[in-house]
Amino acid sequence: MPDIKGDFFNKKFYLANVFEAPILNTTSTITMKNRCLFSLVWLLVSINSICAEGTWLPRADLPEVVGGQWEYKQTGNLLFTFNDNVEASERSRLMDSTRTYIEACLSMLHETTLSDTVDIMIVRNREDMRKLGLPYSGYTFTNPIIEGLPRKTVLCVGGLRNPLKHEVMHLVSRCKWGPSKNEHLMTW
Q: Comparing 50-64, 88-102, 124-138, which segment has the lowest mean pLDDT?
């Protein structure tokens, strides 16, 4: 047994040996270590997948003028951001709708994938849009550097009658074809 009255290294060495399982032979030690490592990896993967599916994370890089907290969840190249008072069922419905709209728009444009990283932000109502400085129900930002945003963004009102499909079409067409020559005529 090592001298536990010695320096820190000896105390650390002693504790490591005290808590190690009894060793029968080299094969059982390797098997036990492999099982322990496998169990640890499995536990970490399980915790990560549970957290990724149900957890909405706080987002502090957005203006607080609309009230409440912003929360986000990233799925693939889409970063969904909602005000914290939007119900989980509404969030899920709008997230599913967004994916469906993107696929429909890509198909309409004869394109296959949208590889751009996009922020989909949903606010509660038009009053929240006004507080953000936009007198519209929806708006699409596709030039983040000029517009001062971290990435391409669709910002729109939630609810049953929302302009999300319309704004997603702006987003997809601009991501695939670039900005239009005339925004009012939508010509390329």
A: 50-64
In what helix (H) or strand (E) does residue 99 lie, and over which residues does it extend? helix 88-108
Which token pair is 87? 């119900």
Distant-in-sequence, close-in-space partners of 63: CB < 8 Å, separation ≥ 6: 132
Distances in whole angstroms, Cα of residue 170 to Cα of each of 3, 13, 40, 59, 188? 73, 63, 46, 25, 13
Dihedral of the alpha carbons of 133, 135, 139, 141, in degrees to the nearest 10: -30
* 171 CA to centre of own chain: 18
Give the integer Cα–Cα distance in Å for 100 and 51: 24
pLDDT for position 167: 95
DSSP reduced 3-state for 45? helix
pLDDT tens for 5-63 read 444 444 444 444 444 445 455 555 666 665 655 555 544 444 444 444 568 999 887 77
**How far apart, in whole angstroms, are the C-alpha atoms of residue 178 and residue 188?**
8
Q: Tell me the two tokens of residue 143.
A: 């030039």
